[in-house]
Amino acid sequence: VRYRRLFHLRLWRPALDDGIDWEIRHHLEERMDELRARGMSEAEAEREARRMFGDEARVRRSLRRIDRELRAHERVALWFGTLGQDVRYGVRSIVRNPGFAAALVLTMALGIGANGALFSVADALLLRPLPYAASHELVQLQQRQPQNDWGQPYQTTDFARAWQEHQTVFTSVLVHTRRGGVAFDDGPEPMRAVVEGVGATFHETLGVQPRFGRGFGAEDVRAGAPHVALVSWDFWTTTLGADEAVIGRDLVLNGVPARVVGVMPRGFKFPEYSQTDVWVPLSEEMTVLGGPARMMYVVGRLPGGDLAAVQSAIAAQGAAVQRAVSPGRELIFYGSRMEDERARGEGVRPAMKLLAVAMLLILLVAGVNMVNLLLLRGAARTREIAVRLSLGASRRRVVRQLATEAMLLALISGVVATVLAFVGLRALQAMMPSAIVFYAPHAIEVETRTLLFTFALAVGCGLLFGLLPALRATKLAAEAAGGSLLPHASAHAGGSPRLRQALVTSEVAIAVTLLVGAGLLINSFIRLTRVDPGLEIERLAVLELTVSSRHFPEPGERADYLLRLEQRIAGLPGVTGVTITGGIPPRGGGISFTQGLVPEGAAPREEDVVLPHSTVRSDFFDVTGTRLLAGRAFEPNETAASGSVIVTQALAHYLWPGSDAVGRRFRMSESSDWLTVVGVASELKLMGPAEPRARFALLYPLGSHEDVFGAVIVVRAAGDPRTLLQPLRAAVHAVNPTQIIDELDTARSLYATSLDMQRFLYVILTTLAVLALTLSAIGIYGLLAYSVARRQREIGVRMALGARRLDVRRLIVGEAMIATAAGAALGVAGAFATARFIRAALFGVEPVDPVTFAVVLAVVLVTALLAAALPTRRATAVDPAVVLRGD
Amino acid sequence: MSVDVVQGTLELLIMKTLSRGEAMHGFAVLGWLTQVTKGELMVEEGAMYPALHRLERRGLLRAEWGVSEKGRRAKYYTLTARGRAELERAETQWTRYLAAWKRIAAAASRG
């Protein structure tokens, strides 16, 4: 018997159980035909057919099971099949409209790329775990005095050693201490290496082993042990030439040869807020570090990292050890997680927060622009979509196609954004304040996590900003398909005027918020640069150097050495004065934290005061140009022991309002020694202009040079101090070829570096604000251009009925102004809402600064009018006769 | 006297039947097998359909609904490209197995 298929229905597919029924029924019917042909009755044939078939229920069950799996396979295959179709459709559609695609990709790539670049910084600074094993388990031991609410992370050496012996909280404790720069002799000119002394548990506590060679052990810290050193990967590759033979070689540190035993792995940084080149074992003598350290840092490993559970044990054991080590000096001890302590200092965290908010806003503008562009594109395609819908494509399917297209565009944006993130990070790095690099536990670069972040962002934007226009376009097209396919049906497909206006409004709002932020930062930066540092920085050069206590162990030798240096410098042509001091703005000499100054004969002030101080010689005022307003300068032989001090005018007013300060006494606290004011100086911004708490300054006499280790030599130039820099270097090396120069620059240039963070912030924020403004100008232009095109007939009719050009102009500009005004109002509200992020970065300006707001609103208004100019011209050029005839 | 289908070879028989290129429904496959073996081979009817569906699930057969010349809805099966390749592989194996069997049988009967 032969059967031939006559035709089949591709689209007809019975439901699962139906199919099985049909198939079995077909079999039985065929069999019955056969049996009847052999002469059986209907009933007999049916009985026999069923008997021959066997257990029908069992067959049915097994068919159902097999088919269910089959359908599941099919569904997956179908999904991927149509995905391929959607992608092909999307690619075709993108290629057909390269201009649209380019505009969208550029907008999104700018938004995503800017975020990618900042993410690299934030990731290295704050997000990625510290470069140690299970870094969340590492705890820093802190101490504070009972009357203070601020703690210090360092301990006396005696306490640190004893704590290490007696504590039971941590499984492993590491003590470490740093000694700034250390002379490192290798090559023609002496260099400076940053050296950290670490205990024998260096590797055990941190869980990091050297990349090459061996680590430190207990034998390395024993008295009389040979000097050894570990070097950082960067130091090894840049200074030591990346040669593995370096292991076993001697590095001469501070004049002491130390044998290199290993190289730490790439990316290892310890402490994480440092640029440490070399680690040496903390032996009893600490020869390489130039003698025993008084203070040490203590890090412990707490398995599991549940710090709250052990705080009371830390406090109790700390107090017990303290009682044993220095009885009578009570301190409070506690732990803080190393991960929480990172990047605390120099305004790094508030700056990152501010930038994160700005980046989020710029991403939002880009997203809104994407929605806007896609809506317009949907409008242009309403007919195409309507045709597809009426030909039987489901709405879901069309939405999927449009969303796939948006996703493709977002992914392309992701690729372009990655490139922009690279470029953007380069640009950021060119002006990045050194504080950010210093505090970042990792090198700041575009790496895998940045790429993942960038693409996640691209996909997120594709989903978020691509779906809405797709839904909208198909909804309107479905309505159009239900009615007619006349072009008028698509009049509102570009988003209703209200929706598009809302989008433009939000763009303007974000631009205003960013512009206000940028304006406030610029404003405060200008104020900062206008602050008088208190000395004639245009005329001064600054030379900082560390006097080696190893080369000049005797105090007399050090004083003599500095004298020889000073004489040599004073003899240089173009030098009109030289003085040695403990520090000048913006770094100062040191800071005292007081809990209320005590003027003689008056009640102590109930106020915490931050008091920056420095030490100066008798010739300080003549050389620097700082003015002495009352009293006298120090005598050449006056020492700190004399108790004489010079205060700034503001401090004098604070201590004795309205009366003369010279000759009067005050002290830092009830238990401190009395200080006698011998002179009052003009304002001196020892900590730079940006430190708001440091209103005052205090000067002590630098009587002798015997105790000067870190010398700041200030040189007054007859002309431009820049011409002195090279002669100064030569002069120092003529006196001592092994002297390391820590700093050599003009005072102006050093002072400017104290504003690096502020400059960085305002430049970035201004760039982003201008970008946002440009995008919203494009948005306004798009809104009006579209609206003019749509309302040609209406305009034509109005003009035919006697409307003048001015009226038409008012109509179009009015539309722009509604969106702009609403956006500006929202933007002002946004600026209020984000005020707390920016407050920390401001100087002398309130977050609600009327002048800044006024300027920003004027800028936005002018931009909106400019964006409206072209569409308005097009509207007034409408010829009523042409428009009406065309109908 | 007839023989049962050897365990696991029903699917091979179906594929071989469909390898002639014609789309067939289950009853036709069964009919063709019975016809060419002159009723020698006993195919259990209830086992036929699960075998067909399994082959479809494995992508070796493709099924489509159609209407037979008697005007009945029926499910038609054809061999896919993958099915053809699989059949070839299985046939080679069977041929070699049978050749080996013959040699063994011959050797055994020689004693």
Q: How many helical stretches of chain B?
A: 4
- Structural class assignment of chain B: alpha+beta
Based on secondary structure, the structural category of chain A is alpha+beta
Shape, principal axes of CA atoms of chain B:
elongated
Which regions of chain B have little confidence, pLDDT < 50, spanning 5+ residues?
A: none
- The rough form of chain A would be described as globular
State the main characteristics.
heterodimer, A: 887 residues, alpha+beta, 8-stranded mixed β-sheet, 6-stranded mixed beta barrel, 52% helix, B: 111 residues, two-stranded parallel ribbon, two-stranded antiparallel sheet, 4 strands
What would your notes on this structure say?
The complex is a heterodimer of chains A (about 900) and B (about 110). Helices cover about 50% and strands about 15% of the residues of chain A. Chain A has 27 helices and 24 strands. In chain A, the strands form 3 sheets. In chain A, strands 15, 16, 17, 18, 19, 20, 21 and 22 form an 8-stranded mixed β-sheet that branches. In chain A, strands 4-5-10-7-9-8 form a 6-stranded mixed barrel. Chain A has a 4-stranded antiparallel β-sheet with strand order 14-23-13-24. The longest helix of chain A has about 40 residues, at about 55-95. The relative contact order of chain B is 0.17. Chain B is elongated, with a radius of gyration of 16 Å. Chain B has helices at about 10-20, 25-35, 45-55, 80-110, and strands spanning about 5, 40, 60-65, 75-80. With about 110 residues, chain B is an alpha+beta fold. In chain B, the strands form 2 sheets. Chain B has a two-stranded parallel sheet with strand order 1-2. In chain B, strands 3-4 form a two-stranded antiparallel ribbon. Classes of the chains: A alpha+beta (about 900), B alpha+beta (about 110). Strand 1 of chain A pairs antiparallel with strand 3 (about 60-65) of chain B.
